[in-house]
Amino acid sequence: MSSEQATAEKTVEAQQDGIRPLLAVRDLRTHFFTERGVARAVDGVSFEVFPGETLGVVGESGCGKSVTALSILRLVTPPGRITGGTITLDGQELTALLESEMRRVRGRKAAMIFQEPQSSLNPVFSIGFQITEAIRLHQKVTRTEAEELAIEMLGRVAIPDPAKRIGEYPHQLSGGMKQRAMIAMALSCRPSLLIADEPTTALDVTIQAQILNLLQELREQLGMSVMLITHNLGIVAQIARRVMVMYAGKVVETASTESVFHKPLHPYTVGLFRSLPKLGRKSQKLAPIPGEVPNPLDAPPGCRFQPRCGLCVERCRAEEPKLRILGEGHSVACHVAQSDGAHFA
Amino acid sequence: MVMQLKQDKPPLIKVENLCKFFPVRRGFFGAPAGYVHAVDCVSFTVGRGETVGLVGESGCGKTTAGRTLLRLLEPTAGRVLFRPKEDADPVDITAAQGEELRRLRRNLQIVFQDPIGSLNPRMTVREIVGEGLAAHSIGSRSEREDRIVDVLKLVGLVPEHRFRYPHEFSGGQRQRIGIARALILDPQFIVCDEPVSALDVSIQAQIISLLESLQEELGLAYLFIAHDLAVVEHISNRIAVMYLGKIVEMGPAEEVCRVPLHPYSRTLLESVPVPDPRRKVKAASLTGGVPTPIDPPPGCRFAGRCPLCLEECGQMTPPLREVHPGHWSACVRAEETEKVRAIPAY
Amino acid sequence: MASLIALAVFYLAAVFADFLSPYPYDNEERSHPNAPPTPLRFRRADGSARFLPFVYRTSYTFDENRGRVYVEDRSAEYPIRFFIPGEEHRILGLIPTRIHFFGVDAPARIYLLGADYLGRDRFSRILYGSRISLSIGLVGVSVSFVIGMLVGGIAGYFGGAVDNALMRVVEMVMLIPRFYLLLALRAALPEDISSVRMYFYIVFILSFLGWAGTARVVRGMVLSLREQDYVIAARALGRGHLWVIVRHILPNTLSYAIVSVTLAVPSGILGESALSLLGLGIQEPYASWGNMLAKAMNVAEIQFNPEVLWPGAFIFAVVMCFQFLGDGLRDAFDPMMEASGVKS
To answer: What is the pTM of this model?
Structure first.
């Protein structure tokens, strides 16, 4: 372990009063080796998830948030490959594990739910069968015991009449119910970390509210940690304790939710807020971030946000900014950012 | 049952009792087993230079309403009156045939949600944007070229882009191409069917700003269909809320979003996750599922999930009534809904 | 890409078969039945080397089991000569000439892949056979494709009762097992006909087999393309139905069409081979890969003359080439490929 990493970990531990993180990702690099070049989808990402907390990961499409999630479970498929960094889950280093060992981690220690519940459930098996299979994969239980567990899980995710629903097939369930079934399946082995990748994006707003509530309740009941990936700032504000903002494969800002929303320090984060229409603030003009997300095959030099940034200085074009600690638990990867936000004045 | 904001000026578009039913067939040659009431007696107006927002959850019929209005789907019943000039007689779009309909289309355009599926992958941007000119045989070759360049500049693209194919562009740029295609015939009215739903927040803001400035510059009227309430409120003058093929509430944007007069609108608004960690949202407790839109029984369609439901709600369909000037609701207990606390801004 | 080059070589060879082959397909040499491939020699009897290969004249004797054993007569060398005069033929059916690409002077004969039971050069026959076998697949599938596109397009675009009726017909055709249909159709045609007419009958049979599947897929594509936003946009701009079909729908089925033709050609080739193999297709003395393989139906024949399997090897190679080409084209034609790139 390099000294830089050691200090980083020390700082984090100091911040968390010595609580060891459940998941610690250090300098993760996941690159895609395409015919047209190397896309550095995730490029030196470090963060941690502490026991029992919800970490919100926000960013726009192509920022690498989903690839980060897939990398943690080592589910990145070629041409993508984890090219560097460490992923420590519950004291276990995941990048070094064999595929067979990794299979025991998936589902049991860390589980994942996806955006599209309909494509995540196999249409030819009943949901009950799929959940019991998931349980029996990791736990030595009989079929009946597994079935009882599955019914209990379906009840926990507030699917009405679980004993009856267990025999139903995915197409018989609505989108919200399918996502509930997915959550039940993901949580059936009581993982300590749940990675939720845009879990409500495909759902209507009323159903979304229900699913988010459910996720929070379950997190409290089961004492698990949640890594919630979304592009929706509202969702993050509502259920995350800490937020990590990503842009073009890099972490640009990490802080408590309160700080990110009320004292954002990175120009990109601020740009996001200014782009967001807000209910009841009709007269407020939107201030879009100019330009487009950079092509992952051809990232700009220096700071990756520099071509779209209004505060860009010479140094931003030459040197890539590192995450700097600018407040309690508040790190920002920006050369011009100041802890009091004076750079926006 | 037709409402309009500015009573003094005749509206650009006046939709009267528009219906679109889709037959549900069973078996090979069987008669329809029923009809999906996708759009069920919908009436509203759009004024000149006005934006009317149409919101609702997936499957509520908002997209079908937009397409039926433009005669891209044949309406089952109802009329759509279009008044090309303020002092001209209105033309019924639903009755127009052949060449007349084709000429009408110059004034009525559409922008789509999907920035990939809405552009023919085998055509260059020039062909895509210029198709309207070709369809109506407008201008000489060089005049068309000039017009294409002008429109591309108008939507924030550069003239060199016209030789490229859609797949060479990002989502936001493709949406600009789609807007340019709609603008080329200089229309008065554009149906924007979820134009920003597939875009990232920062790009979404760019497109919204573009649509706003185009409206200002060209005097366009929009029917802005979306499910994101904050976006709709931001861009619209008036909002219509749809639930299962019916408009349940309609009124000035700010009023609808602050003091909704229908329990469904309220539920929608209260479900929006507020981007402020200091204001925790108590998720709406909607019970029951969305009923089937196939031959729905009489009565309020929201009755089964409504916290304020009365016995009579299940028996007769409540009509839209004007609770406040310009603010209509299809709820028998609209006045009570209003007394619940207003939706706070964030 | 390699498969494209390989196929080009196969088809060019078919076109110039008469020039490339040392003998006409029906040139018999009764003194050389089932001759093995003629060994190409580079070293003279005295041990000195020759730059160009030569052959010896061969003749057979019987061994103790009354099997034929071919022996070389080492007294005279017959060098392989290029652009050698032989039987008269017409290149591309136009230019009369006696020149063949290669050959040896009589009385020696060169059998690169051996000779069949009548002493006809197998290599020459494979070349001539490729004319039938390769073209019949292409022509048959093209015809079936035109029918399929037409029926599928009509059904998809007009929908409703037309769609219903056409699709039921399609299903009826698809219900019948392919091979029985092939045989049944063949049985419905007169038995004793010239090979030229037989060629056209086989084309007819093959296209009758293929169109139903195509029609179904095209219908599905047209149905979904009809709902594409850009089709709706074109209608909103005031375009008529015909324009929409020609400009927006058909070009987008084209890539599928080409890929599908490519993948369907092998089935045409195999269909012809199957008919000819059973003796129901191209008749002797005309050569096709199928009727040449017919000899390989006898196990003993394979045991004593494994060379009879050569046409099979060619069928295998061509079919593989078409499959690879189809796969390659499918990738190349996908316009979304470049756009998709890397997603988060």
So the answer is: 0.77
DSSP 8-state assignment for residue B87: T
CB contact under 8 A, A275 and B173: no
Report whether pLDDT(B284) > 90.
Answer: no
| Placement of tokens 């366009």 in the chain | B220
Q: Which residue out of B157, B257, B276, B280 would a mutagenesis test of the A interface target, given it has the greatest number of A Cβ atoms within 10 Å?
A: B276
Cβ within 8 Å, pair A34-C341: yes
The pLDDT, as a whole number, for residue A173 is 81
Q: Give the pair of three-digit tokens for residue B253.
A: 């944007």
Q: B143 CB contacts (<8 Å, ≥6 apart)?
A: none
Q: Do C344 and A66 count as a contact with CB atoms less than 8 A apart?
A: yes
Q: What's the distance, CA A177 to chain centroid?
A: 22
Q: Can you tell me the distance from the alpha carbon of C29 to that of C26, in angstroms, rounded to the nearest whole number?
A: 10
Q: How confident is the model over A264-271, as a mean pLDDT?
A: 92
The fourth-level CATH superfamily of domain B13-107+187-339 is P-loop containing nucleotide triphosphate hydrolases (3.40.50.300)
- Domains of chain B, by residue range, sit at 13-107+187-339, 118-186
Interatomic CA distance for residues B134 and B2, integer angstroms: 37
Amino acid at C24: P
Does C239 lie at the interface with B, CB-CB under 8 angstroms? Answer: yes
Output the pLDDT for position C85: 79
Q: Alpha-carbon distance A80 to C282, whole Å? A: 53
State the Cα angle at B236 between B234 and B241, rounded to 5°.
105
Decide if C344 and A34 are in contact by the 8 Å CB cutoff. no
- Start-end ranges of CATH 1.10.3720.10 in chain C? 127-340
Contact call for B273 and A232, based on CB within 8 A: yes
A242-247 vs A250-256, strand pairing mode: antiparallel
pLDDT tens digits, B253-272: 988 998 899 989 988 888 88
Ranges assigned E (strand) in chain B:
13-25, 32-46, 51-55, 77-82, 91-92, 108-111, 189-193, 221-226, 238-243, 246-252, 321-324, 327-329
Tell me the HSE value of A139 on the side-chain side, using a 13 A CA sphere.
Answer: 22
Say whether A243 sits in a helix, a strand or coil.
Answer: strand
> pLDDT digit string (tens) for C193-212?
777 777 787 777 777 777 88
**Closest CA relative to residue C218, chosen from C167, C177, C162:** C167
- Nearest by CB to B346, which of A60, A232, A280? A280
- DSSP category for residue A201: T
Residue B26 touches chain C, beta carbons under 8 Å? no
Residues of chain B positioned with their CB less than 8 A from the CB of C228 = 117-118
pLDDT at residue B8, rounded to an integer: 63
Chains with 3+ CB–CB pairs under 8 A to B are A, C
Distance of CA A39 to CAs A79, A80, A297, A298, C341, Å? 10, 9, 5, 8, 9
Tell me how close the Cα of A129 comes to any Cα of chain C, in angstroms. Answer: 31
Q: What is the ipTM of this complex?
A: 0.83
Average pLDDT, chain A: 85
CB contacts < 8 Å between A and C, how many? 25
Residue with structure tokens 């219903």? C164
Neighbouring chains of C at 3+ CB pairs within 8 Å? Answer: A, B
Q: What is the pLDDT of residue A4?
A: 46
| Domain C127-340 CATH superfamily | MetI-like (1.10.3720.10)
Proportion of chain B above pLDDT 90, given as a percent: 38
Q: How far is A196 from chain C (nearest CA, A)?
A: 14
CB contact at 8 A, A79 and A34:
yes
Q: What is the mean pLDDT of chain C?
A: 78
